[in-house]
Amino acid sequence: MASSAAGATPAPVPRKPRPKAAAKLRPTPTGPEADAELPPDRVNLIAEGLGQKASAKQAIFRATLAAFNLLRYATQALCVELTQRVTAGADASVKIEYQPINEMEFHVRFSGDLLVFVMHSNIITFPDSFAPLATPYVEADFRRRYFGHIMAYNFMADSIRYQRLNDPGYLLGRLLVNIDSHYYLEGVRQLELPSPDMSRNVITPEAMRLFVESAMIAAINNDLIAPPLEDIQKISVKQKLENQQVSRGSKVGFSFSHQQRGVE
């Protein structure tokens, strides 16, 4: 028993783990060096932008929608008045129809013409060279540089009725509305174009009625011009199947006014 105990292999002594080196801490910079490394406060920048430009655009959208509704009501009243006058004194078959499409579009059909009034959902601005921007009224408030816009187009009524997809439409006018519900109108010469100084131009029912009246006059006075005979000698099967009658005329009498460049 003693000999076997003397010849036994001693148990290994466990090694103590080496202590890990302490992590080197980077000193926190102070002074100008610290300011250079810190990121800008983007949250404040975003909040400031939303508080100024974004909220202004929302207000402009609401002002434009209110102007569009005034234009809609003025058009409805005008269509009723014209129908009573035309059917009583001339031809009962002549129809002047107001057609609602959605919240931001309506049509007026009359005498083979179709007026399409569309309010765009986005807010726009223009280069500094745009005449209405170079006024004390706009320069006094940067928000007045932004506009909602309402477009008036003239189509041939049969283009929509027969789905002649290649028939052209013509822009008659663009009504720009700012945050103060002031406006600027640009377009064909037949429109009653106001001064570029928008401080004088306030959205009213009377102004919206004048807009739609002028657009209708421009459409009525611009007759359909027949194409030259040489242009309609041939018609393709595709044109026939798609109801694209090449003998259709086109309106060429519209011309835009470029007279009002400065402030009156």
Question: What overall geometry do the principal axes of the alpha carbons give?
Answer: globular
The main pleated sheet reads as: 6 strands, antiparallel
Question: Strand order, biggest sheet?
Answer: 1-2-3-4-5-6
Order of helices and strands: HHHEEEHEHEEHH
Number of H/I helices: 7
> How far is the N terminus from the C terminus?
126 Å
Number of strands: 6
Give the proportion of residues in helices.
25-40%
How large a portion of the residues is in β-strands, by DSSP E? 15-25%
Residue runs with pLDDT of under 50 for 5 or more positions: 1-6, 252-264
Tell me the structural class.
alpha+beta
Rg, rounded, reads 36 Å
Mean pLDDT, as a whole number?
78
Quaternary status of these chains?
Answer: single chain
Summarize the structure.
Strand 5 and strand 6 (183-187) form a beta hairpin. The protein is an alpha+beta fold.
What does this structure look like?
This protein is of the alpha+beta class and 264 residues long. The protein contains seven helices and six strands; from the N terminus they run αααβββαβαββαα. The protein has a six-stranded antiparallel sheet. It starts with a helix and ends in a 23-residue tail after the last helix. Residues 1-6 and 252-264 have low confidence and may be disordered.
Secondary structure blueprint with pairings:
Elements lengths: L1 H5 L25 H6 L4 H48 L6 E7 L2 E6 L2 E7 L16 H4 L8 E9 H5 L8 E8 L5 E5 L17 H17 L15 H5 L23
